[in-house]
Amino acid sequence: MDYRVPPRLRQLPIALAAALAALHATPSLAQDWTLCRAPDAIPAFRELPPEARPRAEAPVNIEALELDVSDENRTVLTGDVELWRADQWLGTDVLVYEHAVERYQAQGEVRYQDDSMRFTAQRMQGDLAADTHELDEVRYQLVTQRGNGEARQVRLRGNIGEMQGASFSTCDPDKRSWELRASDIRVDQDEGMGTARGATIYLGGVPVLYTPWLSFPTDDRRRSGLLYPTVGYDAESGLDLSIPYYLNLAPNYDMTLTPRLLGRRGVMLGTEFRYLTPRHRGTLETTWLPNDRLADRDRASLRLNHVSRLNRHWLGQANVWRFSDREYLEDFSESSHLRAQSQIRSIAGFHGRGQFWDSSISASKFQLTDPLLGENSLQYAQLPRVTFRYQRPLLPWLEAGVRSEAVAFEHPTRVEARRLDLRPWMAAPLEGNAWFVRPELGYRYTAYDIDRATDDSPSRGLPIASLDMGAFFERPANLFGREFINTLEPRLYYLYVPYRDQDNLPVFDSRELTFGYAQLFRDNRFSGADRQGDANQATAAVTTRLLDPGTGREWLNASVGQIRYFTPPRVTLPGQARRSGAVRTTSSRRSCCSTTAGACVPARSTAPSCPRGRSRRSGDSTATATAAWSTWATATGATSSNRPTCPSSSRSGRTGG
């Protein structure tokens, strides 16, 4: 029968697709209101086979129990009428098409479904020539967004859709925890905009918000306009109301202006300017509060985050923060992380990388953000800091390199200096498919040029020798009915650094590193170049993993290791020995650490980590464990002990969503 159906009638699914667009745009009014997730309000009418071809290329199929073409100007399909194309399907009782005027009418309940939605209507009629369509008493179900609702009438004229008496919710029709209702909704697909009149949001059947007019986007095109406001209250500032306005200036840059009313302080203006070019991208944020009534002064802030791709080797970056006063973050920041900072660092520089080298030149400076701290607490500015590293294989079994750094330290109240740190090294890496051995020998030389000091040019030089070796074993394993590859990876690491008295050297940026599993294989227990720890120690460690044999995905990673100190470490930071009693007379100590990480869901896994433990120099031992389950409840545990063996882990639990 398909060959006798008029061609214009086959365009009916296309008209319904336009109706879909209007209905589908409505949930953008309330897409963030996910107070409940309802089951299907309208179940699927029939199972359609998957269609590989797009809709525009797929044929239209029409079936009916009876076809009446006795009138040459009129075609009537009766009884279980079905039209489908690709993923689109339409069902009705009677479909009448008038050829001369190109009008159609569906009588009886109209049912429609595709991959994104389903709807029913009591009546549907339209004019294909004028591209207008009307549907009465519509109920719809969005499949992908899980929303549903009703409309008393839907009218379509080309790409413009109008709905009267419309509603939307993500809840079951009989149990509306929340619902959006509007007397009139108009959607213009060409403009990508919709408007709603007489819109009301209901919570538990009670109206809580009404607006006589509301405009909203229906696609991803950027447009200038108001964004959602934020309202709060602060005991000191009073009412806190922000109303952001977005300016779509150009395809590659935009701006957001945010007036912020602070009841007891005044009106603050915030700006955010974003830009993107083929070589540059960044964000500039500013705030300005003239004449803060509580502080009796102007308040302001600036933040610049910028990245420039200069060429294939060099990159420029800047992350700059400036505040008008130390109390700014405490008074205005909405970030608890920023409010907890006593100093904020600004840094800008250039970073380069080549086949055998990498280098950087940067400048960094700190600003105090804690009103209780004095200038003496401020960390040193590095103006500038230059680094250069070079590493190149000389032979298949021999490689050499150098790590270097030059820094100028500046401070408003403390001694200033320049520091040069050089570390040439040579290694002979040997490896096979299941083993590796890496002996390495280096020399570290650090020199200072100190202002206003008795010894204005102290220096330190000492050799550093290490031997790192390990092996890899694997076997098939079957756990809980699942096939895995189980690995066993033992590793030995020996480190020797002779003792040098470094008490005459200043400390600008060195800190003792937090003890963790990775610390078992580092050649210095301090950060920075002001201290190089002495060492005569050996580390024994072993790692086991469970791997997916098909994808290589790591499902479990467990490691345990222990350091044996043949001579006690003696190098400390100023005042450290008095605080922690780090220098002891025992000739043999051990420190150990373990880490476990597991992933039991395909979408996510955890990385091995070790929470903060005590210093290994004090002979403490630390054991930690981390594991992840499908609900992402994380359990961590840690113990510290002065015993010479690894302790068993005590456990504490924390659940997170």
TrEMBL record:
Location of the LptD C-terminal domain: 298-578
Positions with biased composition (Polar residues): 642-657
Signal peptide coordinates: 1-30
Domain Organic solvent tolerance-like N-terminal: 61-192
A Gene Ontology biological process term: Gram-negative-bacterium-type cell outer membrane assembly
Keywords assigned by UniProt, alphabetized: Cell outer membrane, Membrane, Signal
GO cellular-component term (any): transporter complex
Tagged with keyword Membrane: yes
Residue segments, region Disordered: 604-657
Record Pfam families: LptD, LptD_N
Biased composition (Low complexity): 620-641
Lineage: superkingdom: Bacteria
InterPro entries attached to this UniProt entry: LipoPS_assembly_LptD, LptD, LptD_C, OstA-like_N
Coiled coil: none
Subunit and interaction comment: Component of the lipopolysaccharide transport and assembly complex. Interacts with LptE and LptA.
Family: Belongs to the LptD family.
HAMAP family found in the cross-reference section: LPS_assembly_LptD
Protein name per its UniProtKB record: LPS-assembly protein LptD
Organism of derivation: Alkalisalibacterium limincola
